[in-house]
Design a protein that fits this description.
Length: 314
């Protein structure tokens, strides 16, 4: 009976199920597929000019990763028969979910999760924040500036900004299987032309004891949740080389993946990178959910295996 109720909450279609989100009139389907579909085009960024690159840190990007960033034809995840969309009613709100990868790693996109008012509100909060270059941890747990991570950021705590709290509350309502109470401070990241973050993992580990290990008091970064606030004119996608997937969200969209396995060890399939911005600016909001207080662990076996996206559809 419970399974039947769960099934009835889902509107399951093929990859082209985004039609369900937007078109009560099927006559508009053809126009949608060739102009607006997030799978077939999602207003793909123009191809970058064929000029010699002067990107700082380009040597850290492999040829395959560059192709995933710049060539939409390389990303074939939408052709997979298990790449599906769901529309789930949460109270009076409709959650539009695209499952790009069910496991190894879990990768899910939430379309139009946030209103234009929420996105504008966050943009204004970030504009007033003190922005500085982002740093990375070395093997001793110390922070330093690296050419592998050229991006400016600022924390925007929800406890201080009602606009940020609104975003957290929406995510908490529409993803009830995750607990947004245990997170790091909400982080805004601004990528200007030349800005990028090379392929890396969000799991935090230190080779030696360091004061920064107190950073892990709430557990490690279980999931990464990213909200698109402003889309770059050219470039700026997020790539997942292990599954040859590229996410190109529009403002108001969000996407999430798991950094941990069920036993809370690192999921090595979750390496990802923020592609170089070639024109315009990319602004995102990042929320790292910690493993502490996550009831999702009560619903899985705790084995050394990937989570499954089914857990996010409950």
């Amino acid at each position: 009976m419970e399974a039947n109720r769960f099934t009835k909450t889902l509107i399951l279609t093929s990859v082209a199920c985004l039609i369900v989100y937007y078109f009560p009139n099927s006559n508009e389907v053809n126009k949608f597929l060739y102009t607006e579909s997030s799978y077939f085009s999602s207003e793909p960024n123009p191809s970058p000019p064929e000029t010699e690159s002067s990107l700082n840190g380009e040597e850290y990007w492999s040829t395959e990763e560059k192709e995933l960033c710049n060539n939409p034809d390389v990303d074939k995840t939408w052709t997979r028969i298990d790449a599906l969309c769901f529309a789930i009613r949460r109270g009076l709100e409709l959650s539009k979910i695209e499952v790009i990868s069910w496991s190894n790693p879990v990768l899910v996109v939430y379309r139009d999760m946030f209103t234009k008012k929420q996105i504008k509100g966050y943009s204004q909060v970030f504009k007033k924040s003190e922005v500085e270059p982002e740093k990375v941890f070395d093997q001793n747990g110390k922070l330093y500036i690296s050419s592998t991570r050229i991006v400016n950021g600022s924390t925007t705590p929800a406890s201080i900004h009602p606009e940020v709290q609104s975003i957290v509350d929406t995510a908490n309502r529409l993803i009830p299987s995750m607990n947004f109470q245990y997170t790091e401070p909400v982080l805004g990241l601004s990528y200007l032309p030349g800005g990028h973050i090379t392929v890396h993992h969000d799991f935090v580990e230190f080779d030696v004891e360091a004061p920064e290990e107190a950073f892990l008091d709430m557990g490690n970064r279980m999931t990464t949740f990213i909200i698109s606030v402003e889309k770059a004119d050219v470039g700026g996608a997020t790539v997942f080389p292990s599954i040859k997937a590229t996410v190109r969200p529009n403002p108001g969209d969000a996407f999430m993946w798991f950094n941990l396995l069920e036993n809370q060890e690192i999921d090595n399939s979750a390496f990802h990178g923020g592609c170089p911005v070639l024109a315009g600016r990319k602004l995102i909001t990042t929320i790292w959910l910690r493993s502490k207080g996550q009831h999702i662990f009560d619903t899985v076996e705790g084995k050394k295996q990937s989570f499954n996206a089914r857990e996010l559809l409950r």
